[in-house]
Design brief:
mainly beta; 5-stranded mixed sheet; globular; disordered N terminus
């Protein structure tokens, strides 16, 4: 019995130390929370209603924007906040200009670039800056807002008097929603008045009423609510007015009224606009020569729409006015050649020395590269002399409005003869459609060499496959 008791004591003494070496881990105690997972590096919570910078790409490249005034980097003043926006069709991303003068962000894609705030002393064109992975660096050129010399802008004969070309701001309020301006050109030449309202915000639609005359008598001419930057189907359509001033017209004044429609009805709102001098203009002499058509003795045949497609001269089929380009954007004259046997220009293959479809010009139909709504036979209104070219020496009014309009088919196009090609070239030059990268057609993303700009109105039919 004693022997058994001793055995049990020995066994107990052996097991107890082993048990005391075992550690049993308990699960950690989780503190109560409100369902918000806090970032240990940031004590601020994110506003779920703010979609700006949501889902910002983690890869991509570094995009950079700076502001430049007078070719010098602009640094925001103390207390001044300038926010840069990169936007596409799905989201927008923002970053403030820092104290070094730059806004930088990592992105991946193609973006429109503009400034979120309205600057007090400066403005810019918000509709011309873009960035992508291959071109991520953007410099936005700031324009100083010019001071108005005198006047109060409340009505005719009470206008703000503008003493020079430059950039101006119309601040519209409920009580003063139309502002009157007067400008007297000091030299002959081409002048442009164009609004610069953000087409991506798409909240304000600017308009301008044009008056002509003297200081003592002002005659209403027209209302312009298009011609400048816009997005197809958008609310905002910038105005653009182009006028040529002859030596004989110096001394006259131009009165114009700037106003706008608001999608939200919220005032105040700004319409920034610029007056620019585009170059010399030579008025026609005592009498311009009326040009008669000698080769328009034909009727262009109709092409069945279910069998043929009309191709623009750069290979596209879309409407380029407004930016809906779908071709190369290059008007290449080497692809077309005059055929003496037919008397028309044709698509031409240099390698095989063969002629293809006949080249056509849009005369009573809107040009794909030039005007979304107008047509060449409707381009001239009383006093504007748009169909008088070659420094005012050649009048093509009857040539286009009668002779070549008659030669058109039901689509409003006609075959391009030698004399029609010559007119189109002269017209393009007189209207500055291509002007060192700043021409009206070039603003749609379409370019041509000097000798090829006549192709702006042209295209050809091909059979559908």
């Amino acid at each position: 019995m004693l022997k058994k008791i001793l055995c049990l004591l020995v066994l107990f003494m052996f097991i107890f130390p082993l048990y005391s070496c075992v550690t049993v881990e308990q699960p950690p105690v989780t503190p109560p929370n409100d369902g918000i997972i806090e970032d240990p590096n940031n004590n601020q919570t994110e506003d779920p209603n703010n979609q700006t910078n949501q889902n910002q790409p983690t890869g991509g490249v570094e995009y950079q924007v700076s502001l430049v005034y007078n070719k010098k980097l602009y640094i925001p003043k103390d207390g001044e906040t300038i926010t840069i926006v990169w936007s596409d069709d799905y989201a927008k991303y923002t970053k403030e200009i820092d104290s070094t003068g730059y806004a930088k962000i990592n992105l991946d894609g193609e973006f429109r670039v503009y400034i979120e705030e309205t600057l007090e002393e400066y403005t810019y064109n918000p509709n011309i800056y873009n960035a992508d992975n291959d071109n991520p660096i953007v410099e936005i050129e700031l324009l100083k807002i010019a001071k108005v010399s005198k006047g109060n802008g409340t009505g005719l004969y009470k206008e703000y008097e503008l003493s020079s070309v430059g950039t101006y701001r119309a601040n519209l309020t409920k009580g003063k929603n139309k502002i009157y301006y007067e400008y007297q050109p000091t030299q002959a030449g081409w002048y442009v008045i164009e609004s610069m309202v953000n087409i991506y915000d798409d909240l304000v639609n600017p308009k301008i009423d044009i008056y002509e005359g003297t200081f003592a008598f002002k005659n209403f001419n027209e209302t312009i609510d298009s011609g400048g930057a816009y997005i197809k189907g958008g609310y905002t359509k910038n105005f653009k007015w182009v006028v040529n001033i002859s030596e004989q017209r110096l001394g006259n004044v131009f009165t114009f009224v700037v106003y706008a429609e608001s999608k939200t009805g919220i005032y105040p709102m700004n319409v920034d606009f610029k007056i620019t001098y585009e170059g010399e203009y030579y008025e026609y002499g005592i009498a311009s020569t009326v040009i008669e058509a000698k080769e328009a003795n034909f009727k262009t045949k109709d092409y069945a729409k279910d069998k043929y497609t009309f191709i623009n001269t750069d290979g596209g089929t879309g409407n380029y006015y407004g930016g809906t380009t779908n071709g190369t954007g290059i008007l290449d004259g080497s692809k077309f050649k005059y055929n003496e046997e037919t008397g028309y220009y044709h698509l031409y293959d240099k390698e095989t020395d063969t002629f293809g479809p006949i080249l056509c010009a849009k005369i009573s139909a809107p040009c794909a590269y030039y005007d979304q709504e107008g047509a060449l036979n409707m381009i001239e209104s009383h006093g504007n002399k748009n169909l008088t070219v070659s420094d005012g020496t050649e009048n093509y009014k009857q040539f286009i409005e009668v002779d070549y309009t008659y030669a058109c088919n039901s689509d409003g196009v006609c075959y391009v003869t030698q004399e029609l090609m010559e007119f189109l070239q002269k017209f393009s030059i007189s209207q500055r459609l291509f002007f060192d990268g700043n021409g009206f057609v070039e603003s749609t993303g379409v370019f041509a060499l000097e000798e090829d700009q006549w192709l702006f109105a042209c295209g050809y039919y091909i059979e559908k496959e």
